[in-house]
Amino acid sequence: MTDQPTSADVEACLRDGGVALLPTDTVYGLAALPSIPSAVERIFAIKNRPPTRSLPVMVAGREGLEGLGVSVPPAAEKLMSSPWMPGPLTIALGFGDGERPEWLAEREEMAFRMPDEPIMLEVLARTGALHVTSANMHAEDTLQEVSQIVAQLAFAPDIVVDDGPRDTVPSTLVNCAVEPPIVERDGVVSRAEIEAFLA
């Protein structure tokens, strides 16, 4: 594909308060800098997401969790060393007593993922943690093609990276803020695989 925005282009857009449509290793995602409230509000508006539903976070690696104030229990540490991370696994964590950024101040949990996707990782390396949520209207099916995705959304993102069709199966969400951990969303990694790995 020609004339694709570069990771530097995406970074500039995000730092200017924009919302980006980016490929992940599962579905396409809408991304914004969490430290810019107006950008986060645009994500909610673009996909008509209820404001009571917190946005997940993507980081480039384990070091991306530093400074976020999250508490990482043994089950989460084990999952982070699994074959599915980086990859199609989202982990929800609670918070410890350490400092956390203002954009996490009112949260009780934070769900995060490390994507196995070069384009997204390039952007994350430039920006640090991003809010990234599936690029679909709330409660509607997640689509494969960028043209279909943009047509479904309430309005177009500020910058779009089209890397071809993506699968429509989301990452598996495991809540490690509770004991024992709970699989809260079935996805690429099966519930049975998660339970066997943590057993």
What does this structure look like?
The chain folds into two domains: 1-60 and 115-168, DHBP synthase (Alpha-Beta Complex), CATH 3.90.870; 68-113 and 171-199, no CATH class. It contains six helices and ten strands, in the order αββαββαββαβαβββα. The longest helix has 11 residues, at 37-47. Helices cover 26% and strands 20% of the residues. A hairpin with a 6-residue loop joins β9 and β10. α1 (7-15) crosses α4 (118-127). The chain has helices spanning 7-15, 37-47, 74-80, 118-127, 146-152, 191-198; strands at 20-23, 28-32, 57-58, 70-71, 89-95, 110-113, 130-134, 159-160, 172-175, 182-185. It is α/β, with parallel strands linked by helices and 199 residues long. Strands 1, 2, 3, 4, 5, 6, 7, 8, 9 and 10 form a ten-stranded mixed beta sheet that branches.
